[in-house]
Design brief:
- The chain is mostly helical and 128 residues long.
- Helix content is 78%, strand content 5%.
- The chain has a two-stranded antiparallel sheet.
- Helix 1 runs antiparallel to helix 3, helix 3 runs antiparallel to helix 4 and helix 4 packs antiparallel against helix 6.
- It starts with a helix and ends with a helix.
- This is DoxX family membrane protein.
- It comes from Pedobacter alluvionis.
């Protein structure tokens, strides 16, 4: 296992990532409309709801008693986001705000999701 100070640093980084990502749903809402598959209903609701979930799950990850549960919820959330990533692959190239999402970038996001899922799984299994 990773030594305790490094474990805590990475835990805080991971949790902060979700809190900031969740806040971004409220600050840059228009960007999320671009990557929402057309077949999903209520885009606005889903964008704000997923933002709230990311913030809540990030906070729950920092609480020892809720860490395992938060990690599972994060994994489920990341799996639920896969259709948006597949839609991005199908849609590429396109502009996401000021960023050009090329097919390479869209494809690269999928392994990144697996990394984030693995990171959550680590905190699920190694809660100290």
């Amino acid at each position: 296992m990773i030594n305790r100070p490094i474990y805590k640093i990475f835990l805080w980084v991971y949790a902060l990532f979700y809190v900031l990502a969740g806040c971004n749903h409220f600050l840059s809402t228009a960007v999320y409309y671009v990557i929402m598959p057309k077949w999903l209903p209520a885009h606005g609701f889903l964008i704000y709801f997923s933002g709230v979930l990311e913030i809540v799950f990030g906070i729950l990850l920092l609480i020892k008693k809720t860490r395992k549960f938060a990690a599972v919820l994060i994994i489920l959330m990341l799996i639920a986001f896969i259709p948006a990533h597949i839609y991005m692959i199908q849609k590429a190239p396109f502009m996401l705000g000021k960023i050009l999402i090329t097919p390479f970038i869209a494809w690269a996001r999928l392994p990144f999701q697996l990394l984030l899922i693995g990171w959550a799984w680590y905190y699920h299994k190694k809660t100290t």
